[in-house]
Amino acid sequence: MSYPPQTSPPAATVPDLLIGAKKAPASTPAPAKIPSVTGVGLKSDHYRDILEAGPEDMSAAGWFEIHAENYMGEGGAPHAYLSAIRERFPLSIHGVGLSLGSNGPLDEAHLKRLKGLVERYRPGLISEHLAWCSAGGTFFNDLFPVPLTHETLRKVGDHINQTQDYLSRRILIENPSTYLKTVDDEMSEPEFLEFLSERTGCGILLDLNNVAVSCANKAESTADYLAHFPGSEVGEIHLAGHSIDTGHDWELRIDDHGSRVSEEVWALFQAFCERWGPRPTLIEWDTDVPAFPVLLEEAGKAREIMQNAAAFGPLMGNSHAVTR
Amino acid sequence: MPSLADFQRNFVRALQSSPNHSLRRRMSAPGGAPLEQRFAVYRNNVYHSLTEALSAAFPVIRRLVGDEFFKITARTFLDREMPGRPTLIGYGEGFPEFLESFPPAQNLAYLGDVARLELTYLSAYHAADAEALSGEAFAQIPPEALETARITLHPALRLITSPYPVFDIWQANQDGAAAPDKPIKLAHAGQCGLCARPTLSVILSILPEGEYAFFSALKERAPLGEAAGSGAEVDQDFDLAGALARAFQLGLFAKIEGPGIPLSSPQGRTKDPAKD
Predict the structure, then answer these.
(1) What's the structural domain count of chain B?
(2) A70-81: buried (b, 16+ CB within 10 Å) or exposed (e) per residue?
(3) Domain that includes residue B225, residue range
(4) What is the pLDDT of residues B31-56, one digit of tens each?
(5) Which helix (H) or strand (E) is B244 found in, with range?
(6) Which domains are assigned to chain A?
(7) Is B118 within the bounds of a domain?
(8) B2: in domain
(9) Are B54 and B156 in a shared domain?
(10) Which residue of chain B is at minimal alpha-carbon distance from A185?
(11) Chain B partners within 8 Å of A142 (Cβ)
(12) Which pTM was predicted?
């Protein structure tokens, strides 16, 4: 998955709806825990829709998530809009640049920028990936796989500990989408994530689209994957769309976050909710971003599945499915 | 078993060429798609997303050279200069210089400076916030204190000069811009000007040379009287009152200090709204 940067300005009109916020900025609300409801990935195209919407329009979007790296400029419109949105909604900060899976040391300057954002916006959740994206001072803007070995476990664990200590916050680690299988793996990905969580106290961000993409690309079963997943450590769920590279005598699933959530992923979500109960659940859409109401529709669908699972899960003999 | 370090070193090499023998032995491709195709997904994510990032940062350059040429240019640039920081804000710093040295673009000598203008625009867009000094606050300063006053420019203000008409080229290549009345002349048509962001929107403005010299002197921390002298030296028609009017209209000053000037008048203090 690549993350299109939002470095270019949106429409250059004067944003009237920010004038109030700009003149008398309220203090950033305390880092409210993000409730187990649906949220939406924040895109600059939607700033105005969000700020102009009434509460009834926004009932399916209870919180927003940003890519940390898009807000690492000093000031201007991105921060003005984000501050105004943060005054109204809980926020999750999702990093794509820390490179926790790097063999080398963490980039301390980047960690510092991340801490600056955390202090400025006081997010309810902070997350990063089980992946690497930088090496030798070069940033590749994509998330690369790590072999699931004890060596990797030790190194990623140290990086997570360092990050959590530096931020004084617990972080969530996301399962990656992968296109390759590493033959040296000494454990499965669910096991790896469980060990990481044990070692560092971190939580897990379960991306069910990534589960569908990676399992298909590695010819593994999503049911097996989820059967062994440490569901109680999951602090957030991601849902997104992917595409399929077909027309050859083989198929590859491409995690492009550019379409609606697939039926397969909805089914995984329902199964997770029935077994483990609701979690803060995010709709991600990063390429060919549609009009905001489309994201709200997807969020509404997720909300319905979550509510049905909460209502009927216990009847199906599931003691975990309690609304938190 | 090879170390994580070896794995990552080989992986990075494979992005530039193809997976070497050692990496191939560490990877498997279950389910049919060949290893090379799987690597191509990562390679494509890297180069496509960074080309998109350059394209978003340099829309005028893309329009000037066309999409196909831009893609080739970006790809060649990426082979030379990948991002050095894990945020793409500010990425492309080396692109203007690259354009000037890129042989296929040699007949478009102004590209480098147009790219610099686009970088400057983005830099102003993301610059720190500060409340601008108001004309009223300035008017309260005793006239005798002005000569030696030192002005701090607004943190989003950028000054630009080029031997090419970069502002005209930029303007004519904005979405929805009307075609210029006559072709933009390149010879002896240099322009200087500023890029400002008084609130949230970035504003570009061409300046008379005297005014450019005046603001440049202020940027070098010259006292107001001396900066006015620099303006008059370059242009005998330099209009100080006009320059100051522009400064207050576009919010170019953040602070004024000096003997005889009261400290931090309420309108004059700089402030970061996010920290209030």
Answers:
(1) 2
(2) bbbbbbbbbbbb
(3) 128-276
(4) 778 888 999 999 999 999 999 999 99
(5) helix B240-249
(6) 31-316 (3.20.20.150)
(7) no
(8) no
(9) no
(10) B26
(11) 42, 45-46, 49
(12) 0.91
